[in-house]
Amino acid sequence: MRCPFCNAPDTKVVDTRTISNGAEIRRRRECISCHQRFSTLEEADIRMPLIVKTDGTREPFNENKIRVGMLRALEKRPVTVDSLDRAVNTIKSRLRASGEREIKSRVLGGYVMEELFRLDSVAYIRFASVYLSFSTIQDFSKAIEAMEKSNGGK
User: Fold this and answer.
1) Statement: the pTM of the whole predicted model exceeds 0.85
2) E strands within 36-153?
3) Domain map (residue ranges) of the chain
4) What is the side-by-side order of every strand in the sheet holding 102-104?
5) The dihedral of CA 126, 102, 53, 132: what is its sign?
């Protein structure tokens, strides 16, 4: 690694530590030429798949859009920010694990619905009503019945 101070081509690693539960490595380095010390941060460079919208357009995955949509559904519900963060991270992990370069927005929406279903039933119905374009009371009733069946009547 090049020294950021003198631009010398060689540095040595003085200390290495894992951080973020092993997802990142922080290395303390020293320049062989000028003896200045600096830190570097290493993490895996894993690309998120492109999202293919229903009209065929493609856009990069945007974690913030997922978070905002879920927050809107979870508004005034007893769900912690930590729970939301875990749900968003689960969705991101599923996208990475798919190994796909592109994923349909419907699949991503399904992942969001699964996480909301796990977090809060009211938030799930709120999200589903917009995502699935509910237009009648019967649409709500069907979704609630399906949810009750899969929850075993809870």
Assistant:
1) no
2) 37-43, 50-52, 58-60, 102-104
3) 11-43, 50-150
4) 58-60, 50-52, 102-104
5) negative
